[in-house]
Specification:
Chain B: It is a multi-pass membrane protein. Chain B: Its main location: membrane. The structure holds two protein chains of two kinds. By secondary structure, chain A is mainly α. Chain A is built from 17 helices and two strands. Chain B is mainly alpha-helical. The chains are: A mainly alpha, B mainly alpha.
Chain lengths: 412, 300
């Protein structure tokens, strides 16, 4: 876009045309509602005005962002200013420890300062962080698009609910069992789908997730069908049953602990041998095989480890809500977790945490937006992919610098 | 035997619709190697446009046959417009991105479209008027198939034959084949690749819209969610037949439709969708390139 009178006129005309096109596009579905039984029609003419206005201005922003993206392509530097400042601050030990200390303090007093409702929201945010970090292993690090992640989550939740209902097994016994169950299921699913790549893998995992959900819904004798299982026991503190408030606070600390443990593990995994193998697999599968990496083992590990955390999160979820039914484990749940990973920044731990905080907490506090939540999720997923494919906080990779001067000196 | 025939015709109808939607998947995949996840939503939007137009025209007192034609034309126009716009917004800026990016963008688009229709219309099931006059073809033993089923099967056959001829003999079809084989080379010999891709989306979306209106009129109700399951099943059909191959999509659709019909008829109707997914998983494991697909060698 060139500046000047002509350029602006052109831009305005173009935006006008785009707005016109969208008015046409959205006309029947946005404006007309027919009831074919009572033979009534409701016209929502005002909506078309909103669409036109939104698209007219949105079109400017869209083209400006696209132009900026094109410009950026030339610069290899794609870190934003805020990000580079954060990195610099982070390298200061003083800042790092203060920030960590503050966070720890906040986590410590949170359930005492805020009420039950806030604590509950925070717990679900923490659950999503753990889920996001788990999926991040599969999608972000290993580059395997798993659209049925919620199946492992469901298995953990149902395992705890059923064992608790029939045999009264407690939360602390089921947490590791849920993890193991998740891992086993991950291997069972991972094994047959190993040969598939990219898109096919995505669809198969989606199909697998749906199979699990449909089985949960229809196998009424065991899973109680769509009505679900209620009055699941909350975790007890050394055999002492806490009240609702007490157990919520307790749950909060459990989740904080689980999150710290997850972050620790994922962080260690990232720089391990298997973590590097995942990154190689993500970048180029065939080249990775040529380097002598066992593709099968690497993929299985990613699937199993990712599923482990989903299994644990499932147990926590069942214990937290004390009620589960198959409606909590639809494809959309997988999509939400996936968008947390994608929007936050694939492969980046800080990114996933930021993604979960934004996507789970923001709609909670903006209640009016609640019905637009999924709409926004969808739109944001597209926008992030188009304009910031690396996510909000991009994963940093270790760069080994190659100094030209030194290399030349050696050659001489 | 009667029951068998009934199931068979039901499966054939179902399969035809899957095939009709699968054609769109397979065409797009053949050209830009992208699973157009939002394709099922195009089908749903086609059905909704058909409902709105048909509802308006019924109130104005049009004859049924005219309503069917106009509703089909409108559904095709709007669905094609949606397909075109989606490609421009969500896929075109990502042509050179890693393969996961357009797929995620497509999932985002699909979520967006579903919720857009849900918020603008409702989340309830809406009744769809019967656009194809009901008429049963009877046997001595009983009903074999209805007029709606016959129309659906004929429409699918016509679309498939038409599309095959189009791709074989027209200039645009030739350009499509060239683009599918090698996009860069096609560009070098002067084919407008952008236009070819847009045309692919428009044709695929139109076929999905036809399927949407016909099946909605046959079943009698729609809601915002119908695109998801139909899309997954059509994709299954496309994979089953070998993605990228047109006759494969047709065959895959029929195989899937018949499998589903017999499985629900003879095994259990509770697990209707499970059979489709199981078939998908099995096919992908044992024959990832599908019945009529070609094995592709990979290069670094």
């Amino acid at each position: 876009m060139t500046a000047g009178c002509d350029g602006y006129a052109h831009a305005v005309r173009k935006s006008f045309l785009v707005a016109l096109w969208f008015v046409f596009l959205t006309f029947p579905i946005m404006v007309i509602r027919v009831n074919t039984i009572e033979h009534t029609v409701v016209w929502h003419w005002s909506r078309i005005g909103y669409v036109a206005l939104a698209i007219f201005f949105g079109s400017f922003v869209w083209r400006w962002l696209l132009a900026r993206k094109e410009l950026k392509k030339d610069d290899s530097q794609d870190e934003t200013k805020v990000e580079s400042m954060l990195t610099r601050l982070q390298s200061l030990p003083v800042f790092r420890y203060t920030a960590l200390g503050l966070l720890a303090l906040l986590a410590g007093v949170y359930p005492w300062v805020f009420d039950l409702y806030q604590t509950n929201i925070m717990i679900s945010c923490l659950v999503y962080i753990v889920l996001g970090l788990g999926l991040n292993i599969v999608v972000g690090l290993a580059g395997l698009l798993d659209l049925g992640y919620v199946a492992f989550y469901a298995v953990g939740a149902y395992a705890y609910a059923l064992c608790n209902m029939h045999w009264g097994i407690g939360f602390w016994y089921m947490l590791p069992v849920g993890a193991v169950l998740g891992a086993v299921l991950g291997i069972l699913l991972g094994f047959p789908v190993l040969r598939l790549r990219g898109d096919y893998l995505a669809i198969v995992t989606l199909g697998f997730g749906e199979i699990i959900r449909l089985v949960l819904e229809n196998w009424g004798d065991v899973t109680m069908g769509p009505s679900g299982i209620s009055s699941i026991a909350r975790p007890s503190l050394f055999g002492v049953n806490l009240g609702v408030v007490g157990s919520t606070q307790y749950m909060f600390y459990i989740m904080v602990g689980l999150m710290v443990f997850t972050i620790f593990c994922v962080n260690r995994l990232q720089n391990s041998r298997i973590g590097r193998a995942w990154l190689a697999l993500r970048e180029d599968e065939i080249a990775c095989q040529a380097m002598g990496i066992d593709k099968m083992k690497t993929k299985l590990m990613a699937f199993a480890l990712g599923a482990t955390w989903a299994g644990m999160a499932g147990v926590v979820f069942a214990a937290k809500t004390t009620f589960i039914n198959p409606a909590s484990f639809t494809f959309w749940e997988s999509a939400i977790i996936l968008s947390i990973v994608v929007i936050g920044g694939m492969g980046s731990i800080r990114g996933v945490i930021a993604g979960a905080v934004i996507l789970i907490l923001v709609p909670e506090y903006l209640r009016e937006f609640a019905q637009f939540r999924m709409l926004l999720f969808g739109a944001i997923m597209v926008l992030v992919m188009v304009f910031r494919p690396q996510g909000l906080i991009s994963a940093k990779r270790k760069i080994y610098e190659y100094k030209v001067a030194e290399a030349e000196a050696v050659h001489e | 035997m009667e029951y068998f025939l009934e199931l068979f015709m039901g499966g054939l109808t179902r399969g035809s619709i899957y095939a009709l939607i699968a054609l769109g998947y397979t065409m797009v995949y053949g050209i830009i190697e992208l699973i157009n996840f939002a394709h099922g939503e195009i089908y749903m939007i086609g059905a909704f446009t058909g409902l709105i137009v048909a509802g308006l025209l019924t109130m104005l007192g049009f004859p049924v046959s005219a309503i069917l034609v106009i509703a089909l034309v409108c559904a095709v126009i709007w669905a094609a417009a949606y397909g075109f716009t989606i490609e421009k917004m969500a896929y075109k800026p990502l042509r050179s991105a890693p393969r996961l990016s357009p797929l995620i963008s497509a999932i985002g688009m699909s979520i967006f479209l579903q919720n857009y229709v849900m918020l603008a219309q409702t989340s309830d099931f809406l009744p769809f008027p019967e656009l194809i006059p009901h008429f049963d073809f009877m046997d001595k033993a009983g009903s074999i198939m209805s007029s709606a089923e016959l129309v659906i099967i004929l429409a699918t056959i016509a679309s498939c034959v038409g599309l095959t001829l189009f791709i074989k003999f027209t200039k645009l079809g030739k350009a499509m084949r060239a683009t599918a084989q090698n996009r860069k080379m096609a560009m070098l010999v002067g084919i407008n690749v952008d236009m070819v891709i847009s045309a692919t989306f428009i044709i695929g979306s139109s076929l999905a819209a036809v399927g949407g209106v016909l099946i909605a009129s046959h079943i009698g109700q729609i809601n915002y969610y119908i695109g998801f399951i139909a899309g997954i099943k059509a994709f299954t059909a496309a994979v089953l037949g070998g993605i990228g191959s047109l006759p494969g999509a047709m065959l895959g659709g029929l195989v899937l439709g018949l499998t589903e019909a017999f499985a629900t008829g003879y095994v259990s109707s509770d697990y209707e969708d499970v059979f489709a997914f199981l078939l998908l998983v099995l096919i992908l494991i044992f024959r990832p390139s599908g019945i009529m697909g070609k094995e592709k060698t990979q290069k670094v």
